[in-house]
Amino acid sequence: MRIGVLTGGGDCPGLNAVIRAVVRTANGRYGDAIVGFEDGWRGLLENRKIPIHNDDRTDRLLTKGGTMLGTARTNPDVLRAGLPRIQQTLDDNGIEALIPIGGEGTLTAASWLADEGVPVVGVPKTIDNDIDCTDVTFGHDTALSIATEAIDRLHTTAESHQRVMLVEVMGRHAGWIALNSGIAAGAHLTLVPEEPFEVAQVCAMIKSRFQRGEKSFICVVAEGAHPAPDSGFALREGGIDEFGHERFTGVAQQLGSEIERRIGKEVRTTVLGHIQRGGSPTPYDRILATRFGVHAAEAVHAGHFGQMVALHGTTIGLVPLSEATKQLKRVPPERLSEASAFFG
Ligand code: F6P
After folding, report:
1. Where is ATP annotated to bind (predicted)?
2. pLDDT at 3 over 90
3. CB 125, CB 40: distance < 8 Å
């Protein structure tokens, strides 16, 4: 068989481990030829590809962050209009099955292709952990470890200066990194996109902590967190980028200034940004990515198309791409209320 592989959307630790596992399984077990398309869907729109061999170079991909194929975000409208071109590229290259590895945007495009009869098996990735129908995505554990270590370090400097520290982490629509790193690092509050915050409440929590004689207040802020509409504080609008994504202007920075203005407490802000996506995946992510890659290659050989590999408990299963891309997986209210027991 000739199998195409691509990585789309923002990069994520573990992408290379999936590619390696697909190659080792498909080529090693079945003798398939693997064609890698470069820079996500763009490679298919522009017919840019490279053969990937089952050799030492591929084997060493396991620990490497980023993606050997490159990646890109593609405007969904451009992608929809380009579906016939993508199908043509697949035909021209004799591709009999395609394995797109990506987040919501990439998997949605994969679902469209599946609807057109293209044999596709998707692999979910994102540090944000917001893909539905899978317990977790690879990349999240790495980002979580990085964020946790950063917050651990902020505790000592915050205490020394008796400061409020705001740490902004990634998560446009879902607060998994914020919630999980907040719990893991013993933060005093996390703000997530799922639950609009009241600045007055945040300020009251800070005041009460310092009045109790505590020496610091650490708050993890997801980049997509936003104030409640009537909270007397509005974020400056960030606008929409060329891909239709919201642009953020730094919620933590803006909130920090507002806290200083309201209660006169010294605030410092740390934005972790792309550090959360860089470098080598954790062992957990290497294992999950490898398992996803093996199962994607096996699904291709079993003819289970239009599916996405997914983690359910300890087993890897398949779910229809159309189901998995219906909605994002957001932090449920019960997880937020559970976490609120630790905060303050
Ligand atoms: O989707 C993953 C993600 O890391 C988000 O958490 C973040 O908002 C976004 O990508 C950043 O995208 P870019 O690398 O295009 O700036």
Report:
1. 10, 73-74, 103-106
2. yes
3. no
Asked if residues 200 and 230 have their Cβ atoms less than 8 Å apart, the reply is no
pLDDT at 18 > cutoff 90: yes
Residue type, 243: F
Look up the ipTM and state it: 0.97
> What H or E segment, with its residue span, contains residue 334?
helix 333-340
> Is position 341 within any domain?
no
Using an 8 Å Cβ cutoff, are 226 and 170 in contact?
no
pLDDT digits (tens, 9 = 90+) for 243-256: 677 777 799 999 99
In a domain, 294, yes or no: yes
pLDDT at 284: 98
The reply to whether 192 and 285 lie within a common domain is: no
Residue 293: burial class (beta carbons within 10 Å; 0-12, 13-18, 19+)? buried
Together in a domain, 101 and 43:
yes
In a domain, 307, yes or no: yes
Catalytic center residues: 128
Whether 304 has a pLDDT exceeding 90, the answer reads yes
Q: Is the dihedral of CA 57, 62, 66, 69 positive or negative?
A: positive
> pLDDT value at position 214?
97
- Find the 172 Cα to ligand 1 centroid distance in Å: 8
Is 10 annotated for ligand binding?
yes
**Mutate-to-test residue for ligand 1 from 73, 107, 125, 127, highest number of ligand atoms within 8 A of CB:** 127
Distance (Å) of CA 259 to CA 182, 268, 287, 288, 299 = 19, 11, 42, 40, 52
Residue 289, domain extent:
2-139+281-324
Rounded Cα distance, 82 and 84, in Å = 6
Angle at 215 between CA 213 and CA 220, to 5 degrees: 125
Q: What is the pLDDT confidence band of residue 242, given thresholds at 50, 70 and 90?
A: low
Choice from 125, 271, 277 to test ligand 1 binding pocket (greatest atom count within 8 A of CB)? 277
CB 110 within 8 A of CB 86: no
